[in-house]
Write a structure and sequence with these properties.
about 200 residues, mainly alpha, Four Helix Bundle (Hemerythrin (Met), subunit A), 3 domains, 9 helices, 3 strands, globular, binds flavin-adenine dinucleotide
Length: about 200
């Protein structure tokens, strides 16, 4: 069983979420993670990957950095593009912000496209999905708070409207915790389905 703890930096007082004695990668932002490191910093990891890249897999254009192959220094010189930064941005494992942003995109989009009048089976499977989600979300303290919030505010799968509203409120709870602005939940469909009216 993974051991989850919080390390408090004695000089700065900063709280660093840990998992099995190491800083929890998906629980902190990239900057913090780079700073605290784990003996092998992301920059070093990227450099290693670059050095061991099979040349036959070398991307042939600048946009090929989207692929999983780390570009070589030769390519960087040829095109003048800072591959290291670009490559890292596209290939590094998710930090708490990237994971969060993409997860909210999936969740709100799922809610926006949920049926207006779902059948019983659809309601049950959506409920099961969120139960599993709150069990497996990889940032452990995010997950624990979300689970607690779900227990206090049970999911409402009655319709697209109720589910989207419920999720918007859950997201706002996290926004509040992080000191971010509250989102206007009446705009949830405009944001996640229709786009702004011209
Ligand atoms: P995000 O909050 O990721 O939002 C993305 C977009 O969603 C915004 O640009 C906006 O257009 C829209 N949006 C914002 N609020 C709402 C809303 N209420 N309803 C609908 N749309 C909205 N990070 C932590 O540091 N600590 C935590 O405890 C934590 N818990 C999390 C729990 C869950 C379940 C998830 C999915 C993420 C959690 N995160 C947590 C990550 C955090 O919520 C953000 O995703 C992250 O900080 C990046 O924020 P962002 O500013 O890019 O916008």
């Amino acid at each position: 069983m993974a051991k989850e703890t919080v390390y408090v930096d004695p000089t700065t007082g900063e709280q660093i979420p840990m998992k099995d004695g190491k800083p929890c990668r998906v629980c902190v932002d990239f900057k913090t993670w780079s700073k605290i490191g784990t003996g092998k910093k992301p920059a070093a990891a990227a450099a290693t990957a670059t050095a061991t890249t099979d040349k036959s897999n070398e991307p042939s254009t600048a946009t090929a950095t989207q692929s999983g192959t780390a570009p070589s220094d030769t390519m960087a010189t040829k095109t003048g593009i800072k591959f290291d930064e670009e490559w890292k941005r596209n290939n590094c494992p998710a930090d708490v912000k990237t994971l969060g942003r993409h997860t909210w995109t999936l969740l709100h989009t799922m809610a926006a496209y949920y049926p207006e009048k779902p059948e019983k089976k659809q309601q049950e499977s959506m409920k099961t999905f969120f139960e599993s989600f709150s069990e497996h979300y990889p940032c452990w303290f995010c997950k624990n708070d979300f689970k607690k919030d779900m227990a206090e505010n049970p999911i409402d799968v009655t319709s697209r409207e109720t589910l989207s509203e419920w999720l918007c409120r859950r997201h706002n709870k996290v926004n509040e915790k992080l000191g971010k602005k509250q989102f206007d939940c009446s705009k949830v469909f405009e944001r996640w389905m229709t786009g702004p009216a011209n």
